[in-house]
């Protein structure tokens, strides 16, 4: 029984320590742990809120980026279409200029051909008109006896002196 008595005394002596520990626990709980837990909960809420806000900001940024890229694609397409229209206009203008230059060149060539044909006809007419006079001159020069030629041979016979 001695042990029970000792345990009872030990228990009675430990009551003030238990009360002090319980008071210390209550005091710490309300003055330290509860504010600390409140701060940690608030921090967690703020962190989650900031994380949600960051996610929302990223989503908004992605949407704006997509809208920007879409607008950029449309602008590029518009610029390319405008450049294509300008390029086609320039090509059409060049084709028209080439066609006009070709038509002028053909007209000039035809005019030169007509002028050459006219010159040829004039030259032919002049030549045909002078044929009888030229033929008569040629015959006269061929038939005329040279003054130093006594054999009476014509220049057509050659200069061999009549040796046949």
Question: What is the number of E strands?
Answer: 0
- Radius of gyration, in Å, reads 65 Å
| Elements, N to C (H/E) | H
Into which percentage range does the β-strand content fall? under 5%
Question: Structural class from helices and strands?
Answer: mainly alpha
Q: Which spans of ≥5 residues are poorly predicted at pLDDT below 50?
A: 158-164
- Work out the helix count: 1
Shape: rod-shaped
Biggest sheet features: none
What is the terminal-to-terminal distance?
A: 192 Å
Write down the overall mean pLDDT.
Answer: 87
Helix content: over 70%
Describe this entry's structure for a reader:
The protein is mainly α and 164 residues long. The protein has a domain at 9-112. It is 87% helix and 0% strand. The protein contains 1 helix and no strands. It has one helix at 2-143. The radius of gyration is 65 Å and the shape is rod-shaped. The protein starts with a helix and ends in a 21-residue tail after the last helix.
Entry summary:
The protein has 164 residues and is mostly helical. 87% of the residues lie in helices and 0% in strands.
List the helices and strands and how they pair.
Elements: H1 2-143
List its traits.
disordered C terminus, single chain, mainly alpha, 164 residues
